[in-house]
Amino acid sequence: MDTDTELKEKKKEIFKRVHDRLAGQGFSIVDQDENRPWGGFFVIAEEQTEDFINVYFTDYSRDELNISGKLSPKILIVAPGKRLSWQYHYRRAEIWKVVDGPVGIIKSNTDEQGELERYKSGEAVTLEQEERHRLVGLDNWAVLAEIWQHTDPENPSDEDDIVRLQDDYGR
């Protein structure tokens, strides 16, 4: 098992690699968080959503992804062996595309967690509004492209729109 110092160094390396990849693709990073206990994320400028779709969601058109007229692109980074909370959202649906995998994903329409499914690089998963879900890091760092599909244009989703049913980190 890696030491805490080795894990922190690897995390820095992964975040730098993803940051450089996004910059090289011409994306503007408007927010980032490298301090989540499970990894972290990069938020991409919403005016670049069309470009983000063209790079990461080539199997979809903006019209197919659009629910309310507002989409928000992000990149998620999940550490090996870490889990995001078992959660859902009232004001958004989501679509994830595995950029660097594999990653585990658990989904359910009830509060009971379903079976963990493995997704490899290139595979996508759609999460409906209020569908329960959890990302799980497997053996390696995972990188996912994510689009928030806001369901209420007058009250778009944000980080406060997370209903946590279970969380390994007591949040």
If you had to describe this structure to a student in words, what would you say it looks like?
By secondary structure, the protein is of the alpha+beta class. The protein is 19% helix and 38% strand. The chain is built from 3 helices and 11 strands. The chain has helices spanning 4-24, 49-56, 62-65; strands at residues 29-36, 39-44, 71-78, 86-88, 92-100, 103-108, 117-119, 124-127, 132-136, 142-150, 163-166. The strands form 3 sheets. The protein has a 6-stranded antiparallel beta sheet with strand order 1-2-3-10-5-8, covered by helices on one side. The longest helix has 21 residues, at 4-24.
SSE blueprint:
Layout (H helix, E strand, L loop, with lengths): L3 H21 L4 E8 L2 E6 L4 H8 L5 H4 L5 E8 L7 E3 L3 E9 L2 E6 L8 E3 L4 E4 L4 E5 L5 E9 L12 E4 L5
Antiparallel strand pairs: 1-2, 2-3, 3-10, 4-11, 5-8, 5-10, 6-7, 6-9
Organism: Fodinibius salicampi
Protein name: Phosphoheptose isomerase
Pfam families: MannoseP_isomer (PF01050)
Basic shape: globular
Oligomeric category: single chain
Give the beta-strand count: 11
- List low-confidence stretches: none
Number of helices: 3
Structural class: alpha+beta
What is the helical fraction, as a range of percent? 10-25%
Largest sheet: 6 strands, antiparallel
Beta-strand share of residues = 35-45%
Determine the N-to-C terminus distance.
Answer: 26 Å
User: Mean pLDDT, as a whole number?
Assistant: 95
Question: Major sheet: order of its strands?
Answer: 1-2-3-10-5-8
Radius of gyration: 15 Å
- SSE topology string: HEEHHEEEEEEEEE
